[in-house]
Amino acid sequence: MAVSTPVDAEQAWKDLQRIRVPQERVYDEFERSASGGRGMTYGTAALMWVFLAGVGMDLPQWGVGLFVAAYVVLLSALVVVSKRGIRMQLHHTRCPGRMWAAFGASAVLVGGTVVLSDHLTERLAPLCAGLVQATAAVAVYLLTLGPANRWAADSVRSSRERVADEEAGR
Asked: Do residues 44 and 71 lie in contact, with contact meaning Cβ atoms separated by under 8 Å?
């Protein structure tokens, strides 16, 4: 014999909202931290521009190697500094496939821009060609970063809502 307890619908609704609001804040924080913030975005763009402009100057092989090493070190330092300020981190298994897809699509777009601008600027002097390539690639990076991050972060929110709907349907 089951004993039922009367449930106040208004109180149940308030309890549900009290649980749901912090959960929404977690998703909002994830969306804000997905890109690392403006400092990370513009810092990465500036490093990318300097790297591409420098490589476009027809440097000797050792110069290109030095540029690549400096770029990797500075980019790593930027990532470390920006990650110190993040209040939340997802477990590595919680990174959705959309994040990897957004990263790959952005890499293809920026790489394609570099290749296309290289082809289009063949007749220019190496210094001018490098500046055009760097500017075009950074512009594509900045234009695609926001929508790609929102799309990737939205998958975390929508997957959680899908799980909650499935649990409620039981």
From this structure: no
User: Which residue ranges in the chain fall short of pLDDT 70?
Assistant: 1-4, 17, 19-37, 83-96, 155-170
C-alpha pair distances (Å), 68 with each of 61, 78, 128: 11, 15, 20
The residue length of the chain stands at 170
> 2 in the Ramachandran plot: left (φ > 0), alpha (ψ -120 to 50) or beta?
beta
pLDDT tens track for 19-69:
665 656 666 666 666 556 677 778 888 998 998 888 888 788 998 899 889
Measured CA to CA, the distance from residue 151 to residue 102 in angstroms comes to: 8
Cα–Cα distance between 11 and 91 in angstroms, integer?
A: 34
